[in-house]
Amino acid sequence: MKIVKSVCMAAVLASGLFVAPAMAMNDRETVRVVAPEYPRGAERRNLEGAVSVRYNVTESGEVADVEIVEATPAGVFDRAVLRALEQWQYAPADEVTEGVEQVFNFAFAG
């Protein structure tokens, strides 16, 4: 089952930066969503970008098999997204949810 999500939430960080992960828009309820931290090096260099990922959700609700589909600029925001997704939790279900797609936008507020 392929689920496509769109960006619909922005988490404001103390530094005045925005990191916008998409929220769940499927039958699988999100129990915990953690926004990725804006990498300090990217912040110092005023870099903005986006990371598109694809992953599965296990029966117990854990995110698994995360794949970076596209990252702009490459290698800058990837690790922050992966760390955040490790903390995400979905409601348990009878089967694995496959092919969840998510886009994380990193942009300065204002």
TrEMBL record:
Recorded topology in the membrane: Single-pass membrane protein
Domain TonB C-terminal: 23-110
Subcellular location: Cell inner membrane
Leader sequence residues: 1-24
Entries under InterPro entries matching the protein: TonB, TonB-dependent_transducer, TonB/TolA_C, TonB_C
Chief localization: membrane
Pfam families in alphabetical order: TonB_C (PF03544)
Entry-linked SUPFAM superfamilies: TolA/TonB C-terminal domain
Source taxon at top rank: Bacteria
Gene3D superfamilies assigned to the protein according to its UniProt record, in alphabetical order: TonB
Role noted for this protein: Interacts with outer membrane receptor proteins that carry out high-affinity binding and energy dependent uptake into the periplasmic space of specific substrates. It could act to transduce energy from the cytoplasmic membrane to specific energy-requiring processes in the outer membrane, resulting in the release into the periplasm of ligands bound by these outer membrane proteins.
Family listed: Belongs to the TonB family.
Listed name of the protein: Protein TonB
Record organism: Glycocaulis abyssi
Organism classification: Bacteria, Pseudomonadati, Pseudomonadota, Alphaproteobacteria, Maricaulales
